[in-house]
Structure formats: C-alpha cells, structure tokens
Amino acid sequence: MKAIHILAIALVPLGIIIAAVPENTTRPYKLTADELLIEVTEGRQFMSPDEIAKMLIEKDPSLQLIDIRSKDQFEKFSLPNAINVPLESLLSAEYEEVLNQDIKLNVFYSNSSNDANQAWMIMRQLGYKNNYVLQGGLNYWAETILKPEKPAEGSPNEELAKYNFRMGASQALGGGTEAASAGPAAKSGAPVPVIQKIKKKKGAAGGC
Amino acid sequence: MTKDKEPKKYMNPYLGGVLLGLVLVFAFWVSGRGLGASGAPKSLIIAGVEAIAPAHAKTATFYKEYGSSKENPLKAWLVFEMLGVVVGGFISGAIAGRLKFTVEKVPKITNKTRIIFAVLGGVLFGFGAQLGRGCTSGSALTGMSVLSVGGFVTMAAIFGTAFGLAYFARKLWI
Amino acid sequence: MGPLAVNEIISPETNLFFAFIIGIAFGFVLESNGFSSSRRLAGMFYGYDTTVLKVFFTAALTGMLGILFLSLFGWLDLSLIYINPTFLWSAIGGGVIMGAGFIMGGYCPGTSFCAAAIGKLDAMAFIGGIFLGIFIFAEGYPLWEGFYKAKNMGSPLMNEIIGTSRGVMTLMIIIVALAMFWVGEWSEKKFARDDYKINQH
C-alpha cells in the first residue's frame, strides 16, 4: 500500500478521536494523600481568634480575611476588611489571584470551622500556600473575642491575661461588653505564621 | 573495475514527517517549547558583539533587549539544539555516504553565481527571521503544531512569497 | 507531568542537555529526508519535488496530535507550553523577506546547518549570509523597532479565530493536508526533471 494511504488511515481516525473527545482541563493535585493527611492531623492550618484579633488591632497589612459563606451572610456580618469568596466559587478564575499568592496571609472563615477547613484542603491540594483557617469560625470568635468569658477566680495568670486581651480586642473590634481595661496583648501560643514565598510558575520561554 | 555506487535513498517523506513530529512532541514534553533555528546565530552575534564592543552593546537597543543582562546568551536552548543538529546531520550523512565538500546547483549556472545567491538568500533570511520572530522551524513548524496564528501567518507568507518569486528565480533552479 | 523543565522535574542544565539530544534527532531526520539538499528544498516551488510539503505538514500534524493526546492523558500541561505570539505586521513582513531568501538561497536556517554538516559549501555561504542579516537587523534596530512591535495580538490560536476546539481544528487541517499531499504527488509526476532524481523510498 502506498505510504500516503497508510498515513491517511493513521491520521484521520486519530484526528476524529481528538476532535470528538473534550479537552482535559483538570488541575492536578500537587500533594499526595499521605502528605495532606500529615498536614491535616497536625492542624497547622489553624489560627486562633487571639492571633487574628491581635493582627487586626495592630492593623497588620499582611492579613487578609476571606469569608467563604454566601453573599447574603457576608453582607449581614463580616469581620473587618474581609472579602467574600463563596465556597461554590472557590475554583473560579476570578479568585485565582487572591488565593494563589505570596503577599498576604489568607485566613478562611465561616460560621464554624467546617466550610473554611474544606476550602483550605482544596487550596492545599492545588499546592497553594499562605492559606489558613480561623479556628472555630465565627461561632468561636463570638465566644472568645466578642463576648469573652471571665475566667474563674484563682485561674492561672495566662488565662487572666488572655481574658484582658480579649476584652480589649472586643472593644477595639466592636463587641458589646462591659468596659474593661485594654490589657497588654497576651502572648498567643504559636507564633504568627510566616508568609511563604511561592515560585510563580510561568510557562516555558521560547522564540526565534 | 569500479563499482558504480548507487546513492543511498532518502527516507520516505511521510515517515520522515512523523519522526520529525515526534521529535517536536518530545521537545514540548521535556522543555515546554518546540524546535527552532534562527535564535542560535542571534545568540552568537549578541555574545560576539558583547565581547568585541561591550560599550556599543550596552547602549544599542537591540543588544540591551536581548543581551546578557538577562542571561548569558550562549547558554541558550537553541544554541545547544543547533549544535545537535550539526552532529545529527553529520551522522546521517556519514551513514548514507553523502559526506562531500561540494556546491550543489543546477548545471546551467556557475559555482560563483550559486554562492552569491546563497549569501544573498542568507542575508534576507537572517533579517527576515529576526523580523518574523522565527524561521520555518521555529515559527512555522512549531507554531503550526500549537495552532498559533503567528505560526500560520508566517508560514503562509514564506511559502506564498517563495511561490510568487519562483518564476523570477527560475534560472537558479531549473 | 510535562513539560518537565517547567515543572522542575529536570534542572535547567539537564534541559540544555536534552536540547542537544533533540537537536541530534532533528538534524538526523532532516538529513535523512534530503533536507540537506538545496535543489530538493527549492524543488518544492517548481513542483518537481514536494518532499518539503510532505515532511513539513506531516510533522506539524504529528506535533498537533501528539501534543493534544499527551494533554488528554494528563502527561502535558498545555497552559505551560510556549505558544509564539502574533505580531501581525512583522509576521507577514518577516515571512515575505524570508520567502525571498528561501527562493534565492534554497535553504532555511535549520536546513542550512544540516547541509553544512555534510559539506555543502553553498550552505556554508548561506549561514554566513544569515549572520550578516542578523547583524544588519541588530544594528539598524531602532529603524524598524516600531514595525517589529506593531499589532501585538498576544498568542491567539487558529481554532479560537474560527470558534472551534483544538481537536476539531486539527482534524480539519489533517483533511486539508492530505488533499495537498495528493496534489503534490501529482505535481511530482508532471514536473519531473531529467537531471534530478527524487531518490526516496
């Protein structure tokens, strides 16, 4: 058989297949299941309300709160300077730049930790860095910062210090409590996470 | 008694095309880019000018844009690729017994004519490849395989012009 | 997942090594198909040898299919490969000048290096011309910089212009190319020359 016939018999079916099958647009996972399990069990993604409150009071510019509830819920109440990325739209192109970056610390929050944690997991699997979760969500935030509970008499000093800090914080951030002295900012347990630089993966260069 | 050596046949062109295409795909898979050619002499020129006349290279726009302020021009993908092309072509020619210093031309014209037009053709191609951001390998072949509009446009321009001027250059070839 | 160099599965130095290997394969295939012969290359435009057409388009099609299938299997990330940008005026202008150079010199840069490797003196002359041409472009750059950078359309794809998918576009080009090959084979019989043997399998 002439070569051109062989070529046609090879190319046309391949062409038909490639024309018929939809393009592969999946985004690959960067972490293996094992790697993700380690991170999840260590709980490194959580930031406590105290840490967030401290950053808010100090007006730390590297903080970016992200509200992943629906638009309505966001408009009813949101944390200072938070932006709204509803969970369903997490993967849409318009938020890619906000979520995949190395300039700020993104902290997801929702009413409890659940949705925010799920958002974090998806982002982590795509290999994005600098995303965290507000521990306990808005519910815990309300308990600790907005209406902190006064610790019982005889509690250790750190508990008292934490309480004073939270009272001050709730004043500064607008919670309804009795007047209290703005105590010195309590030392939160873990240090504030460092922003990790990501290597922007640009495409291959070519030319000429 | 001398045996008349039958010149070795060339590969079937369709097979050759498939093989070339596979090399192209391999290049994309490994390096994220396709083949190319004209960028290699460009890197050499830039490196040469920077070595011989560094002051000029610092001020002239072209060298500033493409020079070693970004990266050593000789450490370019295309330079290594073209070195490979020379080696590969040599190996293939050696296997087929086609190694020979010669001027290839139609019998009707002289060697001198052929060489003069070869140089002229080279000048035009060197200039045009810079302007068009690639030659037939880089812009046309590679560009077409990624469905780039620029690739198709350049390919159409090259082949269209060559066909159009073929009549005027016919003395060179037929 | 490819491209290996961009995803940092191989180092930049390894990338350069592979460039060399790829070049060897490139040069070998070119020479084995007779692209080291200026008469063969020019023969495309007089009809007596359409090897250029067949090799070129078959390679482009194989490339298209290969890239799309690799992406389908998840082995190649299409968003990371280099797609050459379209500067409309300079693409056309450069192409016209290159076409003139092609019909005069009988080579293009890649094939000229390949031909020089087997000893063709006219190819070496062509290469000398290339260096001169690039030098002229570089020195006179401010004169044509405007034209060179005009009408930057980004990196549009052919299928985007027609409004279809890459796969469908590939299939269309396959059909067109096969038609061109048939015409090429006919032309080779019609315009055959006495002093020239195509000499291929």
What brief labels describe this structure?
heterotrimer; A: 208 residues; alpha/beta; 5-stranded parallel beta sheet; 8 helices; B: 174 residues; mainly alpha; 2 domains; 9 helices; 0% strand
What does the secondary structure layout of this molecule look like, with pairings?
The complex is a heterotrimer of chains A (208), B (174) and C (201).
Chain A: H1 3-20, H2 33-42, E1 46-47, H3 49-57, E2 63-67, H4 71-76, E3 83-84, H5 96-99, E4 105-109, H6 114-125, E5 131-134, H7 137-146, H8 157-173
Helix pairs in contact in A: 3-8
Chain B: H1 13-31, H2 39-52, H3 54-59, H4 61-66, H5 77-96, H6 111-131, H7 136-145, H8 149-166, H9 170-173
Chain C: H1 12-32, H2 38-43, H3 51-72, H4 88-105, H5 109-117, H6 121-139, H7 141-148, H8 158-162, H9 166-190
Describe the structure.
- The complex is a heterotrimer of chains A (208), B (174) and C (201).
- By secondary structure, chain A is α/β, with parallel strands linked by helices.
- Chain A is built from eight helices and five strands; from the N terminus they run H-H-E-H-E-H-E-H-E-H-E-H-H.
- In chain A, strand 2, helix 4 (71-76) and strand 3 (83-84) form a beta-alpha-beta unit.
- Chain B has 174 residues and is mainly alpha-helical.
- Chain B has two domains: 35-101, no CATH class; 102-174, no CATH class.
- In chain B, 68% of the residues lie in helices and 0% in strands.
- Chain B has helices spanning 13-31, 39-52, 54-59, 61-66, 77-96, 111-131, 136-145, 149-166, 170-173.
- The model of chain B has no long low-confidence stretch (mean pLDDT 87).
- Chain C has 201 residues and is mostly helical.
- Chain C has helices at residues 12-32, 38-43, 51-72, 88-105, 109-117, 121-139, 141-148, 158-162, 166-190.
- Helices cover 66% and strands 0% of the residues of chain C.
- Chain C is globular.
- The interface between B and C is large, with 126 and 133 residues.
Shape of chain B: globular
Termini of chain A, distance in Å? 39 Å
- Which class best fits the helix and strand makeup of chain A? alpha/beta
Report strand order across the widest sheet of chain A: 1-5-4-2-3
Number of helical runs of chain B? 9
Poorly predicted runs of chain A: 176-189
How much is the average pLDDT of chain B? 87
Strand content bin of chain B:
under 5%
